[in-house]
């Protein structure tokens, strides 16, 4: 890794350091850094416990325990300068212990983590089920698969991996045991310290292939699985709703097919910014979602439109919900109505409401959104 000197038009190497010489510890430093920067692993992870020792008949404890977006438990072991010889065996033991954790136990583990590490903003404590539902993208946590059989993943973190460790990790991967190795290297430039986190097993290229194969297998399996009752209801609802909307003034959904999710998205013409209709158990809503890969771009367009909030809401005729979602990359503008969504007798009125309000919503936001997109291009240029 090099430092760029723009004035001299030269690069100079940063000094590679060892964690031990920097007096950096595994628990107080590396573990704390990774817990608060899950993006270092190249994916969205939700940490649900650290220094977890809730195993029966053993006093062993694992470093970090997380969930991925598919509801799989991720066991993370940190080893600083040297991985040691036994880290794989250690992690496999933890994975076997975690394999027996039920949904209720996972929720309880996360609730204790929230209680221990996060002070509530108001009198109500943070709710693990609500946070898990939001992270997993489901309306009801009962719809999410959590810690399925043979779904546990292993992540190893160290500055140096011994050959006996990498060989075993590669061998385990052949048996569809998801293992990753991340090499962490500290650098120094004067008093400034830097940390490079690099996935070395599997390589990004092979990981993409493996993920692609896993997605393909999941798709093939889903064809034969029976849809849950909630999914059948959604599909039936969207079939009726789209039939109504496609005969309205709204053209956003002319080429959209009904699905089994609780949302139905349509393009705005701006990349990764979409309109959505939401059909939930307790409410329906229309929304505009900013979900570009760059969180700053989402915030910029959201704030650009929020500065025009008074004019937008005056034209729409109702106050809107401006959700900046500070803990996530995405931002949303919403308008909602409380309903008993799973009572099919209510569907005609709900569909009329969605059809009417998506037309008003899109007409109101069309020009401000176009101006926000143009402003973003100007800023980038």
Q: What would you note in describing this structure?
A:
- The protein is an alpha+beta fold and 381 residues long.
- Helix content is 39%, strand content 23%.
- It has ten helices and 14 strands.
- It has helices spanning 26-35, 87-98, 103-117, 128-136, 163-173, 204-224, 229-245, 295-306, 309-316, 347-380, and strands spanning 2-5, 10-13, 15-16, 46-52, 62-67, 73-78, 153-158, 179-189, 192-201, 263-267, 273-279, 283-290, 321-323, 331-338.
- The strands form three sheets. Strands 3, 4, 5, 6, 7, 8 and 9 form a seven-stranded mixed beta sheet that branches.
- Strand 5 (62-67) and strand 6 form a beta hairpin.
- Helix 8 (295-306) crosses helix 10 (347-380) and helix 9 (309-316) packs antiparallel against helix 10.
- The longest helix is centred in the last third of the chain and has 34 residues, at 347-380.
- The mean pLDDT is 89.
């Amino acid at each position: 890794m090099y430092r760029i000197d723009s004035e001299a038009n030269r690069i100079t190497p940063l000094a590679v350091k060892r964690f031990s010489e920097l007096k950096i510890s595994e628990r107080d430093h590396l573990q704390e850094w990774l817990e608060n920067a899950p993006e270092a692993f190249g994916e969205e992870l939700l940490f649900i416990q650290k220094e977890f020792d809730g195993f029966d008949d053993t006093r062993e404890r694992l470093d970090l325990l997380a969930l991925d977006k598919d509801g799989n438990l991720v066991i993370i072991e940190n080893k600083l300068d040297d991985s040691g010889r036994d880290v794989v065996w250690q992690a496999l033991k933890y994975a076997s212990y975690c394999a027996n954790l039920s949904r209720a136990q996972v929720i309880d583990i996360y609730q204790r983590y929230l209680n221990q590490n996060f002070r509530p903003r108001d009198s109500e404590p943070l709710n693990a089920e609500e946070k898990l539902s939001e992270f997993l993208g489901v309306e009801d946590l009962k719809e999410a698969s959590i810690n399925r059989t043979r779904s546990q993943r292993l992540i190893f973190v160290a500055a140096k991996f011994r050959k006996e460790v990498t060989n075993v990790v590669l061998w385990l991967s052949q048996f569809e045991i998801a293992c990753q190795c991340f090499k962490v290297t500290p650098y120094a430039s004067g008093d400034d310290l830097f940390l490079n986190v690099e996935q070395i097993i599997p390589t990004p290229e092979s990981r993409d292939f493996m993920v692609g194969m896993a997605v393909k297998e999941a798709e093939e399996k889903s064809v034969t699985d029976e849809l849950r009752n909630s999914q059948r209801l959604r599909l039936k609802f969207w079939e009726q709703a789209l039939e109504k909307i496609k005969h309205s003034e709204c053209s956003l959904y002319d080429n959209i097919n009904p699905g089994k999710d609780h949302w139905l998205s349509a393009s705005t013409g701006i990349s990764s910014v979409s309109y959505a209709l939401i059909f939930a158990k307790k409410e329906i809503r229309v929304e505009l979602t900013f979900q570009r890969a760059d969180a700053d771009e989402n915030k910029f367009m959201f704030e650009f439109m929020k500065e025009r909030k008074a004019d937008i809401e005056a034209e729409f005729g109702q106050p809107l919900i401006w959700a900046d979602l500070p803990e996530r990359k995405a931002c949303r503008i919403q308008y909602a109505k409380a309903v008993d969504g799973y009572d099919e007798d209510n569907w005609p009125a709900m569909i009329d409401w969605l059809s009417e309000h998506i037309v008003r919503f899109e007409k109101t936001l069309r020009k401000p959104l176009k101006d926000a997109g143009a402003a973003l291009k100007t800023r980038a240029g």
